[in-house]
């Protein structure tokens, strides 16, 4: 592979950086305003994943920044497959990006695959986008040792301890028993490893290609003119961020010396109530938000083994002041435009090919229980 390209290996947009080869095959990351960030040699960047949702957007962001992208994944989606094309890409741009994208097949759950990749090249930076448990990332961290110049880790704002003092900031207390404790343990291991790292903590991620039922959960009910059952009073406030803005933040952190050994929250500038989010989804779908039937219920009366709502029934949102200040990150997508993007460029397309399940059986159970409770009070 030629020395005039930087290789990126991704687990798991934008011309934010320009890569320039210099004498002796050294390179610099430059901002658009030519402000120098790093003067280190960066040739090989490793991305784990890169074919689904946030990983796909990060891969595109890096490619648009002029990097040759190397993906490490199982290879279930071949390079050039139409599913890797993202909204807004022309056929020419897509083909150009694919010609500069390479694949190393492997499974991150197989230690021998990781060892093979770690020993095959001197990887300068890695994007670990889909590690949920410490055991997912520890082999990479240990294998790369002190040869890595930057370990980019996708953590989660879910590591914060629930608090009445909001928004969450990076220095806030964390919950070692949260469902994201594996990510927290990985953050702590990175700190102990001595490897230069950056951790990104997004809140809820949304946007086209989202495989988690966040905005789609609302779109389905709005599309079918269904009541929307919301746990609690509907006034819990939550934070969301568009997947493309998240990808931009991660690429901005790459090669930024100020970002080394730092953690950053990422979400949209504005947070929103559950009821407010439902209404914004209606606007994105071209429906009258005032005609929505919002039904509030006690979440404790729903079977615990079934997820009836995409958000945790609590206030959950973060400050991104640190990312804005140190990474010069700014969101592109506000909630209205971002939800329209998701509705028009994902939900509609999936509906046309019958790729959406309109199963409202749990909704019906909730609504029926509310009717029974009401009849008992009469």
UniProtKB/TrEMBL annotation:
Q: Which GO MF terms are attached to this record?
A: UDP-glucose 4-epimerase activity
Quote the cellular component terms of the Gene Ontology held in the record: cytosol
Identify the residues that the record assigns to the NAD-dependent epimerase/dehydratase domain, covering every copy.
148-266
Per the UniProt record, one Pfam family is Epimerase
Say which domain of life the source belongs to. Eukaryota
GO biological process terms, semicolon-separated: monosaccharide metabolic process
Indicate what this protein is called per its UniProt record. NAD-dependent epimerase/dehydratase
**UniProt source species:** Galdieria sulphuraria (Red alga)
């Amino acid at each position: 592979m030629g020395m005039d390209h930087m290789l990126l290996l991704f687990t798991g947009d934008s011309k934010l950086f320009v890569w320039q080869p210099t004498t002796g095959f050294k390179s610099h990351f430059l901002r658009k305003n030519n402000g120098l960030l790093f003067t280190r040699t960066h040739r090989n960047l490793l991305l784990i994943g890169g074919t689904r949702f946030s990983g796909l957007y990060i891969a595109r962001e890096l490619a648009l920044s002029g990097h040759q992208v190397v993906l490490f994944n199982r290879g279930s989606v071949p390079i050039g497959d139409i599913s890797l094309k993202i909204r807004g890409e022309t056929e020419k741009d897509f083909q150009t990006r694919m010609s500069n994208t390479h694949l190393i097949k492997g499974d991150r759950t197989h230690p021998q695959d990781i060892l093979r990749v770690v020993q095959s090249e001197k990887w300068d930076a890695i994007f670990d986008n889909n590690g949920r448990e410490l055991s997912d990332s520890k082999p990479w961290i240990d294998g790369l040792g002190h040869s890595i110049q930057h370990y980019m880790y996708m953590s989660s704002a879910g590591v914060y301890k629930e608090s009445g003092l909001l928004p969450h900031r990076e220095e806030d207390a964390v919950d070692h028993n949260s469902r994201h404790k594996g990510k927290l343990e990985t953050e702590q291991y990175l700190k102990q490893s001595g490897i230069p790292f950056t951790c990104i903590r997004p809140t809820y991620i949304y946007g086209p290609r989202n495989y988690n039922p966040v905005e789609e959960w609302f779109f389905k009910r709005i599309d079918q003119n269904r009541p929307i059952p919301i746990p609690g009073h509907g006034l819990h406030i939550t934070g969301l961020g568009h997947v493309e803005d998240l990808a931009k933040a991660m690429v901005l952190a790459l090669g930024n010396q100020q970002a080394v050994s730092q953690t950053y929250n990422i979400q949209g500038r504005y947070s929103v109530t559950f009821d407010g989010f439902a209404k914004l989804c209606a606007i994105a779908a071209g429906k009258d938000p005032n005609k929505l039937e919002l039904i509030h219920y006690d979440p404790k009366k729903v079977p615990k083994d079934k997820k009836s709502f995409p958000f945790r029934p609590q206030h959950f949102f973060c400050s991104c002041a640190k990312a804005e200040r140190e990474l010069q990150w700014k969101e592109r997508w506000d909630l209205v435009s971002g939800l329209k993007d998701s509705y028009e460029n994902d939900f509609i397309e999936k509906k046309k090919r019958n790729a959406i399940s309109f199963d409202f059986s749990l909704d019906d159970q909730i609504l029926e229980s509310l009717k029974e409770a009401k009849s008992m009070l009469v």
